[in-house]
From TrEMBL:
This is Xylulose kinase. The active site is at residue 225. The gene is xylB. The keyword tRNA-binding does not apply. Keywords: ATP-binding, Carbohydrate metabolism, Kinase, Nucleotide-binding, Transferase, Xylose metabolism. It holds the Pfam family FGGY_C. Residues 242-422 form the Carbohydrate kinase FGGY C-terminal domain. It is an enzyme of class 2 (transferase). The keyword ATP-binding applies. InterPro entries: ATPase_NBD, Carb_kinase_FGGY, Carb_kinase_FGGY_CS, FGGY_C, FGGY_Carb_Kinase, FGGY_N, Xylulokinase. Its EC number is 2.7.1.17. It comes from Catenuloplanes nepalensis. Catalyzes the phosphorylation of D-xylulose to D-xylulose 5-phosphate. NCBIfam families: XylB. The record marks 8 as: Important for activity.
Length: 462
């Protein structure tokens, strides 16, 4: 049996799956938590990867390894390959002003989407580089290279061989703001404009490129976590993946690149050589955990409570901008609850409003994807939040679409493992996912209508 390993180094944890390359059967797995915060030293990811690999029985017997990772995080390295400062993550909003400045300097949003398929917001690496240039000139002076979380972990697995041996893949490169999925080329002029110097960047590998070796194992190009999840869940034309992890994402695989100057849909690349138009919210599964904390219950009880309240929660609306928001672009916003009355002031109403508010924000993303030409026949729901029965049952009413839920699993790590199997065997394996559940419901447009009336009514954070 040929074994392969897939890694998901995501915001909250690192997961490792080891699968049979031919059948996809899960052989072993492990996981380890990441520290909280939006600024994390990459060493913490390396320790978590080592712990998760050990829990998964080690990597000595695998033929290939691929790493999927949280997108956009800025990892800066000096000439010796030492980390210059803790990485700024995708959900760190301190570079919001840098995003505004960069859009102005290039002449507007359309110029950015024409150049690199996206409009800068605080999440994207290019804006973090500008923040660094504006606030930490000493660190900029020391920096010799910039890469992403998955690039850095792949490079560490290869033994940290030197800056010229940094590799990335199309999907993650397309989220930097200085690489174009449409042309398959870096825009190093935009990187230089952001950070005001030249930096070494990773070589972008194609779908079956190799990034070196870890012992006897080949290292695959890896991927951004969303692209890996799309590959792991086997998304087909007409499928839209909705991932409810730390972030909420809505995306599909496309044959042409997105170009959305509104900035809602980012024109990313996928792992097979195609494209991955994607909408991302900053607030997803943690809206549920926060609502559970407010109610003094766990997430299972939150789900029961939400299903006890009527659709629309009698008009109670929770606007879920707990970390500020990226879509819509409100980096300084806070969340809000509207429609409180004697009738709606119950735990069940609040639980229902939390689930519906989070899903309504994602449904707005679904509309934006359609506006970019995506065919949407059904939703495939993945990520930690998809484990919630309330989310599964309420989602079809909010999205107005059938929702398919694969068995609970690690679809980012699985996508990375599937890529590793492609590298090890020379062909993309057809791994089938059994026991998916389909949820249907009559659409309830009133849920989205009351959300639309409330979503602008927020105040900024202190
Ligand atoms: N049954 C559940 N109901 C609601 N949320 C859940 C459930 N199980 C896990 N989660 C949440 O899912 C999140 C983790 O999901 P995951 O997709 O692994 O996130 P990430 O990839 O961003 O680290 C955590 O915030 C966790 O609390
Ligand atoms: O910024 C994005 C996508 O553009 C996020 O989706 C990150 O890639 C983090 O993902 P999770 O840790 O929530 O899976």
């Amino acid at each position: 049996m040929t074994l392969v390993a897939g890694v998901d180094s995501s915001t909250q944890s690192c997961k490792v799956v080891i699968r049979d390359a031919e059948t996809g059967t899960l052989v072993r797995e492990g996981r380890s938590a990441h520290p909280d915060g939006t600024e994390v030293h990459p060493d913490a990811w390396w320790q978590a990867l080592e712990q998760a690999s050990t829990m998964a029985g080690g990597l000595d017997d695998v033929a290939a390894i691929s790493v999927g990772g949280q997108q956009h995080g800025m990892v800066t390295l000096d000439e010796q390959g030492e980390v210059v400062r803790p990485a700024l993550l995708w959900n760190d909003t301190r570079s919001a002003q840098a995003a505004v400045d960069l859009i102005d300097e290039l002449g507007g949003a359309q110029q950015w989407t024409d150049a690199v398929g996206l409009v800068p917001v605080a999440s994207f690496t290019v804006t973090k580089l500008r923040w660094l240039a504006d606030h930490e000139p000493g660190n900029v002076a020391r920096a010799a290279a910039v890469c992403l979380p998955h690039d850095w972990l792949t490079w560490k697995l290869a033994g940290a061989p030197g800056l010229d041996a940094l590799y990335t893949d199309r999907s993650d490169a397309s989220g930097t703001g200085y690489w174009s999925a449409a042309t398959n080329e870096y825009r190093l002029d935009l990187l230089r404009q952001a950070v005001r110097k030249d930096l070494t960047v990773p070589t972008v590998l194609g779908p079956t490129g190799t990034a070196g070796n870890h012992g006897n194992a080949l290292l695959g190009p890896g991927a951004g976590d969303n692209a890996a999840a799309g590959f792991g869940a086997g998304a087909q034309p007409g499928d839209v993946i909705v991932s409810i992890g730390t972030s909420g994402t809505v995306f599909s695989v496309a044959d042409t690149p997105a170009n959305d100057p509104s900035g809602i849909v980012a024109g990313f690349a996928d792992v097979t050589g195609r494209f991955l138009p994607l909408v991302c919210t900053l607030n997803a599964a943690r809206v549920l955990t926060t609502a559970a904390t407010m109610l003094g219950v766990d997430v299972a009880k939150l789900s029961d409570l939400a299903l006890d309240a009527p659709a629309g929660a009698d008009g109670l609306v929770l606007v879920p901008y707990l970390e500020g928001e990226r879509t819509p672009n409100k980096p300084h916003a806070s969340g809000a609850v509207h429609g409180l009355t004697l009738r709606t002031g119950t735990p069940a109403h609040l639980a229902r409003a939390a689930v519906e508010g989070m899903l309504c924000a994602l449904a707005d993303g679904l509309d934006a994807l359609r506006a970019q030409g995506a065919t949407v026949n059904r939703v495939i729901l993945v990520g930690g939040g998809a484990r919630s029965e309330a989310v599964r049952r309420i989602a079809p009413a909010v999205f107005g679409l059938p929702v398919v839920v694969p068995p609970p699993g690690e679809y980012v790590a699985d996508g990375a493992a599937r890529q590793a199997a492609w590298i090890a065997t020379g062909a993309a394996p057809e791994w089938t996912i059994k026991n998916t559940q389909e949820y249907g419901a009559t659409p309830v447009p009133a849920i989205r209508e009351q959300y639309a009336a409330a979503r602008e009514l927020t105040v900024d954070r202190h």
